[in-house]
Write a structure and sequence with these properties.
Length: 195
């Protein structure tokens, strides 16, 4: 494994930056490879870890990724430079809900504020190619979605409710076939049906 990748993992751990979990990222990279995904939109860059790893799957892959936190955005830019991927990864510093995109993507990867997942989904599905896929991270929220609500703080309870609403939203969405995989922190794969 490239030591620069490991450095990012250590940095994320030390600074409590919630990059994708080990099994989750391997699942995602495998999916990208198997389905020949080339154009990716990511909501939630953090320090650029997942964007870089997705890009490294194949030299034809390009990533557009959105981050609202300035410090993380700057770290992402630096990391992307270290891998010389400036030409293939575009980072947008803005709240994703304020971003308007014209381009079409094979995959949209949602990995940002959990309370806004439905909004991200509804906003960006117009940028998803026919038979594209929307992948959502953290659907298990460290197992908290299965816990007794009464044991949770108000804040966490709110997020758990939002995530459960999102899972219901995915399951009831007739235009997509959704499977939630028990890898990493719970990864949802929603494939748009060809109808
Ligand atoms: N995908 C990254 C981890 C992202 S962590 C990886 O696996 O390497 C989630 C990030 O989403 C945080 O850095 C947070 O600042 C950002 N974020 C949360 N809500 C957002 C929003 N509405 N718009 C843009 N970025 C957002
Ligand atoms: Mg995540």
């Amino acid at each position: 494994m490239d030591h620069k990748i490991e450095e990012m993992e250590i940095y994320a751990k030390q600074n409590k930056i919630p990059i994708m979990e080990h099994d989750g990222i391997l699942f995602l990279l495998d999916y990208i490879k198997k389905h020949n995904i080339q154009r990716i939109l990511e909501i939630g860059t953090a320090i650029g870890y997942s964007a870089i790893r997705m890009c490294l799957v194949d030299s034809n892959i390009t990533v557009t990724t959105i981050e609202r936190d300035k410090e993380r955005y700057q770290q992402a830019i630096q990391n992307i430079k270290k891998f010389e991927l400036e030409n293939r990864i575009q980072v947008i510093l803005e709240d994703a809900l304020d971003v308007e995109l014209e381009d079409m993507y094979d995959m949209i990867f949602i990995d940002a504020a959990k309370s806004q997942y439905i909004k991200f989904f509804e906003k960006f599905e117009k940028n998803l190619k026919k038979s594209g896929v929307i992948i959502s991270d953290n659907l298990h929220f460290h197992g908290l979605v299965y816990s007794d609500e009464n044991t949770l703080s108000r804040n966490v309870r709110g997020m758990v409710r939002k995530l459960n609403q999102y899972t219901e939203f995915l399951k009831n969405n007739e235009q997509y076939e959704t499977t939630i995989y028990d890898v990493g922190d719970g990864v949802g794969v929603s494939v748009r049906k060809n109808i």
